[in-house]
Design brief:
Helices cover 30% and strands 22% of the residues. The protein is an alpha/beta fold and 343 residues long. The chain binds adenosine-5'-triphosphate and magnesium ion. The site of adenosine-5'-triphosphate has 13 residues, from strand 1 and helix 1.
């Protein structure tokens, strides 16, 4: 679990680095305009790492692309508010968003190779970001690129800066992506499954590096993953998404010891653990429904072992504050005794 000092989740903080309020995103699909992110609210305070977790299709990437201003302008509709370091970005024209991206907020993706250009050296690709945002000379920017490659642990950075992405391993490419993301010292780093494609040892090194850079560069992190084990290692707070909605939002230790949403309980049960070594990993039966199949009532009920006819299938379930800054979207909250990792 995170070694950071214990934090309390503030009810209201105005200096949040990222503050998303009631964000909804719709895409134009064969089913008409379809909402895939539904009234999502989340905050990332200064210096804090917030995990955003949920199974495939829950809306994590779409939420983060909205925060980067990277959703396709045609074919998507965004409503609600996204503030980065206090500045509203919903509705901002691309000419202004491109000055915020890389400077205030950066993102690293699961597949670094797809984001790197095969035809430029890694040094040039980092230097280009510096030049664009800071107006530095070619020479200064390249020197900064070398420093940054060194900072992300690329050995022999001066020479490796002149190499092309295909000359790097997957793990090293991810370090290069991190160098590009961090070179202008953003206030917020969004990491979308940054280690999922890496093998376990490389994954651990990458997580360690991100923690070190976070302290050195004083950056807040929104860490997206479907792996609660990684969340335990990296995050101070966590927001759990299911079928486009936030279902639970809390401090990481509270989630692990005392989950309040049955979906969180299900995700915890699926964590590989020393105690269950050799035992079959449990996973939640069924799958996240497609956005056009979301019920008006509890979206998790079809997979929930605690679902009750007449309670969970009657009306939309709201995300309710439960004290201590926690929020839970379950009509049976308070009636259930859910199992955390200690249970
Ligand atoms: N451009 C798009 N057009 C239409 N639907 C989309 C588009 N992008 C994403 N979606 C849909 O939005 C929903 C949320 O997708 P998203 O990629 O945010 O999920 P995710 O939580 O990041 O999942 P994963 O863990 O697989 O990365 C999915 O149903 C997906 O099919
Ligand atoms: Mg995703």
């Amino acid at each position: 679990m995170s070694t950071a000092a214990p934090l309390s989740v503030p009810e209201r903080v105005d200096d949040d680095i990222l503050r998303i309020d009631n964000l909804s995103v719709e895409f134009h699909t064969d089913h008409g305009w379809t909402r895939v992110v539904d009234e999502v609210s989340l905050r990332v305070p200064p210096g804090v790492t917030v995990g955003l977790v949920g199974e495939s299709g829950s809306g994590k990437t779409v939420t983060s692309l909205a925060a980067m201003g990277l959703l396709p302008p045609r074919g998507s509709r965004v409503s609600g508010s996204i503030r980065i370091a206090g500045r509203e970005i919903v509705g901002l024209p691309e000419s202004q968003m491109s000055n915020i991206r890389g400077v205030d907020v950066s993102m690293v993706f699961q597949e670094p190779r797809r984001s790197l250009s095969p035809s430029f050296t890694v040094g040039d690709q980092i230097a280009e970001v510096v030049r664009r945002h800071q107006g530095s000379s070619k020479r200064e920017s390249f020197a900064r690129a070398i420093e940054m490659l060194d900072a992300v642990g690329i050995p022999d950075a001066r020479n490796r800066a002149k190499a092309y992405p295909h000359e790097f391993s997957g793990g090293m490419c991810q370090r290069v992506m991190l160098a590009i993301a961090m070179v202008c010292r953003p206030k917020l780093l969004i990491a979308d499954e940054p280690t999922t494609a890496l093998d376990v040892t490389v994954q651990r090194e990458m997580l360690r590096l991100m923690k070190d850079l976070q302290h050195e560069y004083d950056v807040s992190i929104l860490f997206i993953t479907h792996d609660l084990g990684v969340v335990a290692e990296m995050c101070d707070q966590v927001t759990v998404m299911y079928a486009g909605q936030v279902v639970e939002s809390t401090l990481i230790d509270d989630l692990f010891e005392d989950p309040r949403h049955p979906y969180s309980e299900g995700l915890l049960a699926a964590i590989p653990d020393a105690r269950t070594k050799g035992a079959r990993l449990s996973s939640i039966p069924g799958a996240v429904p497609a956005p056009w199949d979301w019920p008006q009532t509890c979206r998790f009920q079809a997979r929930c072992e605690h679902a009750k006819v007449g309670r969970c299938d009657v009306e939309p379930i709201v995300l309710g504050g439960v004290g201590g800054g926690r929020a839970v979207r379950c009509v049976r909250d308070g009636e259930l005794s859910l199992k955390g990792l200690a249970g």
